[in-house]
Amino acid sequence: MTSKQGWLPTVWCFAFVLLQLCARPEIARAQSPNRTFQPSDLNRFERLGAISLSPDGKLTAFTVIPSKVDAHSIDVQFDEGLLQGNDRGQVWLTDNGLGISREITDGRSSGKGYWQPRWSPDSAHLAMLSIEGAKVRVVVWSKEDRELITLDGDLSLTGSSDDQRFAWLNNRQLAYLTSTKVSNLSFQGAESTATHGWKNSREGRIPTADVLASPPDSALDASGPLESLAIADISTRNISKVAVRAVEGNSTLSVSPDGKSVAVFTTLKAYSSSVRNGEFTDPNAWISELQFITSAGEVKVKKVFVGMQLPGWNESALWSPKGNEVAFHLIRPTVVGSDVEAKWFRCSVLRGECEDMSQHSNASIEDLLWLPDGRPIVYVTNDTNVKDQPRTLHQWLLVADSNHTMNLTQSLNKVPSSLYAVGKSSCMFGVAGDEFWRICPETNQTAKIALPIQGSQWEILPDEVQHGGNLIVAGQSQDGMVLYEIDLSQKQVHRLSMPTGNLVLSSFRRSGDSYVFSSSKNDSLIQSFWVCTVQQSKCTVLREFNAFLTELREAPSEQIYYRSTRGQNLAAWLLLPIDYRSGEKYPTIVKVYPGDNPPERPEGIAGNSFLNLQLFAAHGYAVLVPSMPLPPEGSSTDPYDLMLDGVIPAIDKAIEMGVVDPDRIGLIGHSYGGYGVYSLVSQTKRFKVAAAVAGIADLISEYGTFALRCRYGPNPCGGSDWTVGQGRMGNPPWQDAERYVHNSPLFHADKIETPLMIVQGDFDGSTIEQGEEMFNALLRQNRRAQFVRYWGEEHWPESPSNLEDFWRRIYAWFDEFLRPDTHSK
């Protein structure tokens, strides 16, 4: 499908000026917050997505993810967990010289979402991802004819690695990974499988059997390749494909600097067949494969790594400057939820050999970099004792050859955790606190570089935003954030134009005469997107996000300190009602999450969590967030017995402060916090009312039940968290059934007298059966309870109507028992 749109510069200018004139009164009015935060405000958040500045510096492509209420005309799924809202995204283009933007995608009319724009090296084409229904495709926009061209082949996405599944090889060739199956986009894939199966079963002509095998690797081998590497020629529209055997959606790619090779890393097997005492008993539970494929589609190298998996290709795939080697690290989980064994490998494209880099150091390798001459240096940590005091030492080592290393940072008291190579310089640059260092491996010399502002905590911006042979660093001055560009060849420092104020840099890109960045006020969702030119020293606001937040009043919070029932020093957060008056006691909601110690400060109105506690404060409640210490994940313990330790003393402390009304206390928790709610109300009657959202009640059934999206999918999933991780059971139920029963709130349901609301989505990984079991237990005892089920939702309500309905019901449930409209002295 194609679409044509002209530039229309005259209309652009008029619209831009009109927008600025219209926006000024609104900004002036927003200086004085005049209303309280409402649940409907959660649906108004919009945000800036991925940014791509053209290599020639003339154009900027950026993704705008509109609010849920503004996305009604797009076929959105509201699945923030998988696509992060990109399914309703649209791509805009800015002329950096004029500072004027326009939308180049057609989602408003076609119902598609677009995101992840990426320029070709010659700035002539812009590739991006597009979604329509459950189909994800690569789309290319041409600067010459302003057309959108959809390439053949569906992509299977996992959400976190979308940007690692397509890349430009050169000006005309684009590589991307396609799937032979329908993209597994959460509930859409499950919905399609289920409804087709039900229809076929009713018609009685087609068998609807779907078989899972144990162990699952044999089923994978029999099914053949699930993905392919596609290489598209944009000029001829020809597409060649190379089969890639992988678990669907688990392939990632990385292109060499010269564009001649593609490294494709795939997961062939990823499961744990058995766990005992928190340890995996199957050493071959993971199988990964690396392939080098040429731009002509020829497979040059294939390497299999047994018992190891890739933690994150985006962070670990590092090509040498000449493109003849690639380095990456793999992990082998040893104790589940705790330690992992990590190894760095160095593989040659020409020889097809891979070297384990851990042989060069007894210390743990944390990072690896390539010098311009192709030699690697590694960042290592080593725990040691200095004068009987434990200490962690950090070092950068040059790997000279297979038998020799050289410590490059031995003379430094503070060692930079990151180093950067800039241009063709043989030296590396790094920051340690307020010290800026040049480290030269060839001469083994280090030198401190003086910057204009002394005492600032400097930060070197990542490699992808560096400009030619220059280095860009960020720091703080009395006026706020500052950026400097350091010309290493001329030994000159130039300050880049930036707006003043207390801003936090969200993103930055530099190319040609232009640089673009986004900033937020105090790290909130009130964002501004800017384009600046170096020669004119001028910055222009392209777009502002969520300015409506300046109209809203925000409730204050304070940290309080107390001791647990076991004598441990703990901290809690107390969020005060929006109209708090000293000397009055307020109904209070206690929000719990086991393992939080200390808990995070409650987010402000600019936080877009579905359970933003500011909404309780705006409704007249105080909110208490206590610490709930637990032993480290991976250990075997009884978390049920520890639920009261940090919660009850925090409540007593808040009552002692005169804020909390002891007769009007409610309880809420989400996910593992829902497990905390079930556990608490079965052990104490301190709470007048409670709500558990996506909570776990029965560890035995949760261990083996498939989530609905997995029930209709090709791979089993679910359950392992209760053997390991948060569950801390240590063994499967058949080896320690008594511990599972004791730690399952369901088996203590006879002690629950607190009115309880249970909220669950039927597509949740914390399966809806958990809510069904607890509700049935209360129903059969004639206890007061409500079971709110949201069809089509996962771990929390995401669709606009469900999100507002959730808060309407939560308010009504707590208001019935706690009466926030009344206060007591």
In summary, what is this structure?
The chain is built from 14 helices and 46 strands. It is an alpha+beta fold and 825 residues long.
Q: State the major sheet.
A: 8 strands, mixed
- Give the low-pLDDT segments: 1-31, 218-223, 384-391
Mean pLDDT over the residues: 81
Helical/strand content category: alpha+beta
- Count, helices: 14
The share of residues in extended strands comes to 35-45%
- The oligomeric state of the chains shown is single chain
Percent helix, as a range, is 10-25%
Shape label: globular
Keywords:
825 residues; alpha+beta; eight-stranded mixed beta sheet; four-stranded antiparallel beta sheet; 14 helices; 36% strand; globular
Structure description:
With 825 residues, the protein is of the alpha+beta class. It has 14 helices and 46 strands. The strands form 11 sheets. The chain has an 8-stranded mixed sheet, with helices on both faces. Strands 1-2-3-4 form a 4-stranded antiparallel sheet. Strands 5-6-7-8 form a 4-stranded antiparallel sheet, with no helix packed on it. The longest helix is centred in the first third of the chain and has 21 residues, at 9-29.
